[in-house]
Amino acid sequence: MKPTELFLCLLLTATCALAQGDAKSLIELGGVAVRQGELDKGIVYYNDAIHLDPKNPVAYFNRGAAYLLKRDDETALADFSDAIRLNPKYGKAYNNRGTIYKHRGDLDKALGDYDNAVRFDPGNGGAYNNRALVRMARHEYDKAVEDCTEAIRLKPGDFVAYNNRGNALYDKGDLAAAIADYNEAIRLHPEYANAYGNRGRANLRKGDFDATIADCTEAIRIEPGLVTAYYNRGSAYEKKRDHDKAISDFSDAIRLDPGYVIAYANRGVTYHHKHEDDKALEDYGKALQLDPGNAAVYNNRGNVYKGRGDYEKAIADYDKAAGIEPNGIAAYYNRSRAYTAMGVYDKAVADCEKVAALDSTLAHNDLAWLLATCPDAGVRNGAKAVEYALKACEVTGWQDAHAIDTLAAAYAESGDFDRAVKFETLCLASQPPVGDAQERLELYKAGKAFHQAKP
Q1: Total-model pTM
Q2: How far apart are alpha carbons 42 and 39 in whole angstroms?
Q3: Do 61 and 10 touch, CB atoms closer than 8 A?
Q4: Which of 55, 277, 295, 417 is 20–30 Å from 171 (CA)?
Q5: Which residue from 392, 380, 372, 346 is spatially nearest to 443, judged by alpha carbons?
Q6: Residues sharing a CB contact under 8 Å with residue 200, sequence separation 6 or more, in sequence order
Q7: Are 21 and 220 within 8 A, CB to CB?
Q8: Which residue from 371, 372, 368 is spatially nearest to 448, judged by alpha carbons?
Q9: How far apart are CA 82 and CA 211, in angstroms?
Q10: CA–CA distance, 338 with 317 (Å, rounded to integer)
Q11: Cis status, amide bond into 3, omega within 30 of 0
Q12: Is 34 in contact with 46 (CB distance < 8 Å)?
């Protein structure tokens, strides 16, 4: 969804007698022209007004607003700055200049201008809304909520403020409160596509995929070009394993926004789930062309290569992912599996240890299994295998038969066959059954450890 909405203070009119050549009259004529869509004509009037009265801040402000409508941010910025120079308490000029700074990504300057906007024009709810957007971009979600709440106090029917507060609450992880705000925005404005779309996004995070689909469908009905509604609905279909509908929605998102990286990336994931890996690789390649620093896409492309047995390409992609996100877990974990399949066990162990060091429970079972059953005797370490296998069992509440199977193998490698038999027997009593567990139990009863065959 469009996650946020900016408020601009537009043209001011000056009360005056319409005498031709009077600066105030020219400002009035400029306002009429701009409201009729004749921006260049309006700018000419403002130019004449400034020529007659170069110290009139309203003329600079209105000319800046006209340039802003023409998307000439640089000239608009200069005019708003001149308006502020002439009237340092000009709240609306601070608001509009702050918006230009926000568009440029200069959040500090934007925040400073919005601070002055609400200071000098405390009744301007739009300025509070705008400051909330900057605070969200700075991850200051509590302050963003406060600003939206003030905007709502100033104008209780401000549906956009409810929507924006919902977005701040969503970013905080308070989905129930976010959905309540989206509900109120929709009640106030039943045809407000953004609120439906954002509520759909919140329902997606909740795992209520049917609600996401319903909300995004309504958002698309109201605003057929709302790109993120297609993307979020596609994500919901993907979660429901309705791959064809997911691909259709991701494709519509890409059609509307050919630079939408995440739509290419997730369409690639969906193609992979459909076993159409050539198409998945094409989408991942496009996503990386648009965003070469996307670690997740490198990781996912690596998984496709790994699934094809092209381990060198897989490892190259995992290397790039790890280089971009040194504290990311997925690349190390997946690379460990690629190294295991290649028989490069020392590197596989090193990657599993890296994952374990990052406080993830993901690799405990894999690491324990490698240390207990590796074909390379130089890699095996029964004591460490037991340590990691116990962690895996504890994390899974002793309910994971595979973790218990690994613990039995670890005890066998450490020479404790009584415990190996005990836990393999427990594994066999667990559901779902683990393949070859009975054969391993017979080995342990005979006082022999289990080791994997070399690939």
Answers
A1: 0.85
A2: 5
A3: no
A4: 295
A5: 372
A6: 1, 211, 212, 213, 214, 215, 216, 219, 229, 232, 233, 236
A7: no
A8: 372
A9: 50
A10: 11
A11: no
A12: no
Domain boundaries, the chain: 1-185, 361-455
Residue 21: helix, strand or coil by DSSP?
A: coil
Amino acid letter, 1:
M
Two tokens, residue 11 = 């043209």
Cβ neighbours for 326, distance < 8 A, ≥ 6 positions apart: none
**Class of 361-455 per CATH?**
mainly alpha
CA–CA separation, 367 vs 344, rounded Å? Answer: 14
Q: Yes or no: say if 242 and 250 are a contact pair by the CB < 8 Å rule.
A: no
In the DSSP assignment, the letter for residue 361 is: S
Q: What is the mean pLDDT of each run of 10 residues along the chain (455 residues)?
A: 52 41 90 96 96 96 97 97 98 97 96 98 96 97 98 97 98 97 98 98 98 98 98 98 98 98 98 97 98 97 97 98 95 96 95 88 90 95 96 93 96 97 95 89 97 89
Which residue type does 60 have?
A: Y
Q: What ranges in 343-379 are assigned the alpha helix state H?
A: 345-357, 364-373
| Residue 309 DSSP SS3 | coil
> Are 238 and 269 in contact, with CB atoms under 8 Å apart?
yes
Length, in residues, of the chain: 455
Interaxial angle between packed helices 39-52 and 57-69, expressed in degrees from 0 to 180 and rounded to the nearest 10:
160
- Tokens representing residue 394 in the block: 């504890």
Which string of DSSP letters, residue by residue, matches 177-222? HHHHHHHHHHHH-TT-HHHHHHHHHHHHHHT-HHHHHHHHHHHHHH
Give tens-digit pLDDT for 228-255. 999 999 999 999 999 999 999 999 999 9
Of 257, 231, 259, 258, the C-alpha closest to 245 is 231
Q: Matching CATH topology for 1-185 and 361-455?
A: yes
Cis peptide before 292 (omega within 30 of 0): no
CATH topology of domain 1-185: 1.25.40
